[in-house]
Amino acid sequence: SKAEIGLIGLGTMGAALASNIADNGFDIAVWNRTSSVTDAFHANAGDLAARITPTQTLVDFVAAIAEPRAIILMVPAGQPVDDQIAALRPLLGDNDLIIDAGNANFHDTNRRAVEAGDLPFLGIGVSGGEEGARFGPSIMGGGKREYWDRVAHILSAISAKHETTACATWMGQAGAGHFVKAVHNGIEYADMQMIAEVYGIMRDGMGMDNAAIAATFAKWDQGPLKSYLIEISGKVAAAIDPATGQPMLDVIVDAAGQKGTGRWTAIEAQHLAAPIPAIEAAVVARNLSSQLETRAAGEALFGTGPRKLPHDALGLDTLEQALMVGKILCYAQGFDMISKASVEFGWDLPLPEIAKVWRAGCIIRSDMLDDMAQALGEDANRNLLFAPRFADIVKANHDALRQTVAMGALHGVALPALSSGLAYFDALRTARGTANMIQGQRDFFGAHGFARTDGGSGHHGPWGNS
Ligand code: 6PG
Fold first, then answer.
1. Which residue puts its alpha carbon closest to atom 10 of ligand 1?
2. Are 151 and 170 in contact, with CB atoms under 8 Å apart?
3. Which tens digit of pLDDT belongs to each residue from 7-33?
4. Is the domain of 33 the same as that of 130?
5. Is position 448 within any domain?
């Protein structure tokens, strides 16, 4: 009998996803550009091998799948996806569905949906790394609903479950799924960066060793910060390098890599005029981290700050509270961006469902997302910060964030994401800000006009002698 679905691209993610599909009882045909990879995958599939059909040519691959076909692409984002679609389409029937499950830029997915015309196409965001792909990722779908419905039973079966709810959700047309995945990654960047900043305070400001830092993250993982990223940060801090016996963290170069999704989020936020400063700061921090030589020269020229905080300047509880508030701020920014995009692109993105689909399987999964889903369910158009349950947490704890940021500033420990999160919060709670000065300047040099507090717009100076 023929396979129910096919998958192209047996790299780390593709192989894990194919195994997951077979593991859930679906017969799957697989193809990889290099046949030896296909053969090795099948040979190592153990009990799952019976449900996997390895194929050597694209023609054989297509022939092995039951019609109407559904084919998942797990190839590197960008041109390889276009090339694969071009190679595949001539072999397919008009009713056969191509599903791009890679980390595509959602603009590319929008374009591919247009290029597909009446031919079935979906772009789905898949989060959770290799382990998620193998045992249950979080899946964010985009494209025509009828195509999603065709494969929803498979995608739900292989997805992560929050209690009994499958983390596989249709987000909207065309690039909507990949857009939501991009914002997920933006939040992922900010969440990771804030954790790294707090690690910096513990290491440089408090002089804690890796074991103490690991223990602190492990403790926080039992409280309100409970999340996958806190959990793995504890494990990263605890790990020992077998080659040297040193803590792993001490042998890793402090230059962060990036494949681009966080950057896409920051760029798109600018197009949307969506304020996501903590996420942007996290992208900037990665860019700066890679300037190793400049930073070394900077330290030689300027010295570092005193770094070491006075004894008892900050407690670990204060740091935990600061991180809690920072985390809420970065999620509030991410969801605000999603709601702006929803309007701008006419997608009608389901904000509470997005929080729900992130509750399990994905990299940013955390206990807090369950509360976020509820808060967005009450009012999806309200900034998360204003939802009573989060407003209460922020009211009770923003002073901890302030103390942390102030200590970092005074002692020269860079905290870009935490401090821009704080500035966002302070701006959002200032009814009368300082943009009146900007408007005065704009009118002075360009007669751009301004609105008056006592009514009317399009007013101008006089500005005195210029
Ligand atoms: C996920 C991740 C994943 C991402 C990697 C690398 O949700 O599983 O977001 O999709 O590609 O984490 O991302 P960077 O190379 O940009 O850090």
1. 127
2. no
3. 999 999 999 999 999 999 999 999 999
4. yes
5. no
Does a structural domain hold residue 328? Answer: yes
Give the mean model confidence (pLDDT) for residues 301-330: 95
CATH of residue 249: 1.10.1040.10
Expressed in angstroms and rounded, the spacing between residue 199 Cα and the centre of ligand 1 is: 21
Nearest CA to ligand 1 atom 14: 258
Please check whether residues 191 and 236 belong to one and the same domain: yes
Three-state DSSP string of 398-425: HHHHHHHHHHHHHHCCCCHHHHHHHHHH
| 266 and 392 part of one domain | yes
232 and 378 together in one domain: yes
pLDDT of 465 = 66
Question: Same domain, yes or no, for 247 and 392?
Answer: yes
Cα-to-centroid distance, 415 and ligand 1 (Å): 22
CB 393 within 8 A of CB 325: yes
Judge if 133 and 166 occupy the same domain: yes
Give domain status of residue 442, yes or no.
Answer: no
Q: Which domain holds residue 38?
A: 5-174
- Count the Cβ atoms, other than its own, within 10 Å of residue 68: 13
Last residue of some domain: 154, 174, 194? 174
What contacts 427, CB < 8 A, 6 or more positions away? Answer: 433
Write the ipTM.
0.96
Whether residues 189 and 92 share a domain: the answer is: no
Closest residue by Cα to atom 1, ligand 1, is: 127
Backbone angles phi, psi at 105, to 5 degrees: -70, 130
Residue 385 has pLDDT above 90, yes or no: yes
Residue 181 a catalytic site member? yes
C-alpha 185 to ligand 1 mean position (Å): 7
Q: What is the pTM of this model?
A: 0.96
Residue 388 assigned as binding residue: no
Determine whether the annotation assigns residue 185 to a binding site. yes
**Is position 197 annotated as part of the catalytic site?**
no
User: Of the listed 67, 115, 163, 181, which one is catalytic?
Assistant: 181
Confidence of residue 305 (pLDDT cuts 50, 70, 90): confident
- CB atoms under 10 Å from CB of 135, counted, come to 15
Is 466's pLDDT higher than 90?
Answer: no
Residue of the CA atom closest to atom 9 of ligand 1: 185
| Catalytically annotated residue among 4, 188, 320, 353 | 188
Distance 428 CA to ligand 1 centre (A): 30
